[in-house]
Every structure is written in structure tokens, then in C-alpha cells.
Automatic annotation (TrEMBL):
Alphabetic keyword roster: Ligase, Membrane, Transmembrane, Transmembrane helix
Organism of this sequence: Aporhodopirellula aestuarii
Descriptive protein name: O-antigen ligase family protein
One GO MF term: ligase activity
PANTHER family registered for this protein in UniProt: LIPOPOLYSACCHARIDE BIOSYNTHESIS PROTEIN PA4999-RELATED, TEICHURONIC ACID BIOSYNTHESIS PROTEIN TUAE
Length: 468
């Protein structure tokens, strides 16, 4: 297929979307229908992460399982097998898609990283864990690949982000209800966590805030009109779970998004209202007694009963990182196997033995897949990001998607400093990552096609600033 033919087909698909033509076919389904299998996989994967409590938590803290362990295990198996079936059907049906080769080339380093993860099972100390986790990651990469093929415009992004926002909101609401109604199952708790770890819940709610704000500020989506209820629910999860990093990162990135995209009249009104409130407060409480009481309460929440030594070591992460760094040098090039952070598969940290995650994105990649794996992973994400940066101005109806990808990527960057992020256990944040990769890859590939088509035509359109 020539560049001009490929460009013509992609232009047809884009115009079909803008005109609302649902009868145009790609593969074995109409254009508009291809988003539905993606949404089904997203929902299944987001809700496939419920787990029974570990044995020592059940004996030490009395944590109970909300459902029999066999049922929860069956849920994980069923959702993954179903997702593999749906995605396999999509891959075969879309094999002759005109965008296929470009998407594969753009995602090639990430595909190599996934293949390397499968290869690392051979030298892993716990092959069962490595195989299960790398299969989950492979599902996410294939999901991103399918999104990259069928994505057409901001309209598709809005639909996917709407489902992410709704799914994350319902998950947050469910966890809050379980936390207060059935405290024995350990929802939103740290030491005695059971059905859903507090860290995973915090990342899900942090991303729920970002996605909902993006829908409100960038798309003005009808679903986002319920933003006060949605954000209040996510904030409650963040406070109950007690994850200070998620509160900090989410707050900073959300403020940046509001500052960039909120209506100027709203911002001016907000600044005026805050000024009036602060002035009135100073008149009523000139000695700032109430302010100091609130500050003390915030300080108590921030400390969470920890000593200065514990806080200075980032809640014990200094000990974790020291041991992980030492473990990395046991196999610096190859790593210990996907999702396995030591040569024996068990490490003694925080007075417990286990296959700990590194609680840092970079260390997690280094210890598990070595320098080779980290290089492939960083190259893969960077190659897609570079294509998005170079091309987003040239693809019609992609500016909102690009802005959403940019802000959520900032959130991931901050979150990954103290957590394993999307290369840790499968979690809702992994599904969001997959969507971002798919949309970013599609924009980068469409821009490359247009660039070459314009070069053949001998003309390029004016690349003016993008307005939202």
C-alpha cells in the first residue's frame, strides 16, 4: 500500500467519524463498533483485581475474605481469559488495517519489552508469578495496540475516558461502602489490607480525579456535570486510605490542569472568593487560633503516627530501596525475572519475608528485568511520547486527547517515584496506562502518515497554535 493510499483511507475514516457515519466498516465490524470490545476489556480488567487476604494478615490481623478465595481466583482467571479471547479476535479481524505496520513499528520497543518479560520467566526464581504477571502486562499492551488501530479522534477518547471515570467512581464508592459496612475484610487499610490494597485504591482514586477533571475542563462531558459528587467520593477514598503521596500528586497536577483550562472568569471569581474569605477570617480570628488547630490536624494526618526518623526515611522506603539496589547487582543485566525482585524470590524487609515490589518504578524495572528491560521500557514509552509531541498539531481533533495524556503522564511520573506503578500488579492504573499508550500511538502514527503525504504533495499546512 502506498503512502497516498494509506493517507486516503485514514482520511476517510476520520471524515466518517466526524460525519457520524456508523456504517463504514473496518475489519469485521463497523467503525463505531470497535470501541465496544475495548470498553468491555477495560471494565473487566479494572474489576479483576480483588484478592483474598494473605495468610499472615488473616492470622495476625483477623482479616477476612469478602468472598471465598476460589471465587476471587476464578474471577481473575475468567476476566483474563475473556480479555485474551476478545483481543485475539480484534487482532485477527484488524490484521489488514492500513495503520497496522506503523502502529507495530511505533510500539516495537514496548512489544520487545513484553517479549523479554516472557523470556525472563526462564531464569525467574518464581516462574509462576513471573508468567502470570507478564501475561497481564501483555494483555495491556495488546489492548493499547487495538486502541491505536481504531482510534479516530477526540470523540473516541471522550468515550473511553467517560467509561474510565465511571468505572473508577463506582470502584471508589464500592470500597468506601465495604470499608465502613464490613471492616473485617480490610478494604482501604494498609497493614491489614484484604480485598483491595490501600495503595491501589489511592492510585485509582487519584486517576479518577484526573480523568473526571479532564472530561469537565477539556470536553465538558455530560457525565462530568456530577463532578462534585465524583471528586468528593475519590477524596474520601484518598483520606481514608491515608496515602499521602497520592493526595499530594493528585492535588498538584489537578491544580495545574485547572489553572491551564478552567474558564478565566471562574478562576478570577475563585481568587476573589478566596481573598474575601481570608480577609473575613483575619477579622474574626486575628490570632489565627483556628488556623493553627487546622494546621495541627493536617500535621497529624501527614505524620500518621510515624516518628521523624520514619518520615525522613520515607516510611521505610529507604530500607526497601537499599535492599532492592543491592538485589539488582546480583543480576544487573538480565534481572531476576518479571515481577520477581530477588534471586531467591523472597526478601526480608520490614520484618517480613516476601516477593516485595520495589516501591519505585525505576527500581522495580531494574531488579526484575535488569538494565536490558529498563532500556526497552524507557525507549518504548519515549518513542511513543516523541511521536506524540512531534505530531499532535498535525492530527485533526486530537488536542484534547493530547492534553489529557500530558497531565495524566505528569501524575504517573510523580506516582512512580514511590510506587511500582503500571509495572506492578495489575490494577486500574494499569488499564489507564494502556489507554494512554493506545491513543498516543494512534496520534503519532496518523501524524507520520500525514507528514509523508504532504511531502509527496509538496505542501504542508500552517502549523499554528492549538486552541482547546
Amino acid at each position: 500500500m502506498t503512502i497516498s493510499q494509506e493517507h486516503a483511507i485514514i482520511e476517510h475514516l476520520s471524515h466518517a467519524d466526524q460525519a457520524g457515519e456508523k456504517n463504514a466498516w473496518v475489519g469485521s465490524l463497523p467503525i463505531a463498533a470497535w470501541i465496544s470490545p475495548i470498553l468491555i476489556c477495560m471494565w473487566m480488567l479494572m474489576y479483576s483485581t480483588f484478592s483474598p487476604p494473605e495468610d499472615y494478615k488473616a492470622s495476625q490481623y483477623g482479616t477476612k475474605s469478602i468472598l471465598p478465595a476460589s471465587v476471587l481466583s476464578l474471577n481473575k482467571l475468567t476476566t483474563r481469559v475473556t480479555a485474551i479471547g476478545i483481543l485475539s479476535f480484534a487482532v485477527l479481524s484488524l490484521w489488514k488495517h492500513p495503520r497496522r505496520d506503523r502502529v507495530l513499528r511505533r510500539m516495537f520497543p514496548l512489544i520487545l519489552f513484553t517479549m523479554y518479560g516472557f523470556a525472563s520467566v526462564a531464569w525467574s526464581a518464581d516462574r509462576g508469578i513471573s508468567l502470570k504477571q507478564v501475561i497481564s502486562f501483555a494483555i495491556l499492551i495488546v489492548l493499547g495496540y487495538i486502541i491505536a488501530l481504531v482510534w479516530r479522534s477526540d470523540r473516541d477518547s471522550e468515550r473511553m475516558f467517560f467509561h474510565l471515570s465511571m468505572g473508577l467512581f463506582l470502584l471508589a464508592l464500592l470500597l468506601l461502602i465495604i470499608h465502613f459496612a464490613i471492616p473485617s475484610v480490610g478494604a482501604l487499610t494498609k497493614r491489614s489490607s484484604g480485598i483491595f490494597h490501600s495503595t491501589s485504591a489511592s492510585s485509582a482514586s487519584g486517576l479518577g480525579v484526573m480523568v473526571t477533571l479532564g472530561l469537565r475542563l477539556l470536553w465538558n462531558s455530560r457525565w462530568s456535570r456530577f463532578w462534585p459528587l465524583i471528586l468528593a467520593t475519590h477524596l474520601a477514598v484518598l483520606l481514608v486510605a491515608g496515602n499521602r503521596l497520592s493526595v499530594l500528586i493528585t492535588g498538584l497536577v489537578a491544580l495545574a490542569m485547572i489553572a491551564c483550562y478552567a474558564h478565566r472568569g471562574f478562576l478570577a471569581g475563585a481568587v476573589l472568593a478566596v481573598s474575601i474569605i481570608v480577609t473575613g477570617y483575619l477579622v474574626v480570628d486575628a490570632r489565627l487560633d483556628g488556623f493553627y488547630e487546622v494546621a495541627d490536624s493536617v500535621g497529624i494526618y501527614a505524620k500518621q503516627g510515624q516518628s521523624k526518623k520514619e518520615l525522613s526515611s520515607l516510611s521505610g522506603r529507604e530500607e526497601m530501596w537499599t535492599k532492592m539496589w543491592k538485589s539488582y547487582w546480583d543480576s544487573p543485566l538480565l534481572g531476576h525475572g518479571y515481577f520477581v525482585t530477588s534471586k531467591t524470590g523472597r526478601m526480608y524487609v520490614w520484618y517480613e519475608w516476601g516477593n516485595w515490589t520495589a516501591h519505585n518504578f525505576w527500581l522495580q524495572a531494574l531488579t526484575t528485568t535488569g538494565a536490558i528491560g529498563l532500556s526497552l521500557l524507557v525507549t518504548g514509552i519515549g518513542w511513543i511520547g516523541l511521536g506524540l509531541y512531534r505530531g499532535y498539531r498535525q492530527v485533526a481533533n486530537s488536542s484534547r486527547s493530547t492534553a489529557m495524556i500530558g497531565f495524566i503522564s505528569l501524575w504517573y511520573f510523580g506516582w512512580g517515584f514511590l510506587n511500582s506503578s503500571f509495572i506492578g500488579p495489575l490494577a486500574p492504573e494499569s488499564v489507564v496506562f494502556s489507554v494512554l499508550i493506545g491513543v498516543a500511538t494512534s496520534i503519532a502514527c496518523q501524524a507520520a502518515v500525514q507528514n509523508q503525504a504532504w511531502t509527496l504533495d509538496g505542501a504542508r499546512p500552517n502549523r499554528g497554535p492549538v486552541t482547546l
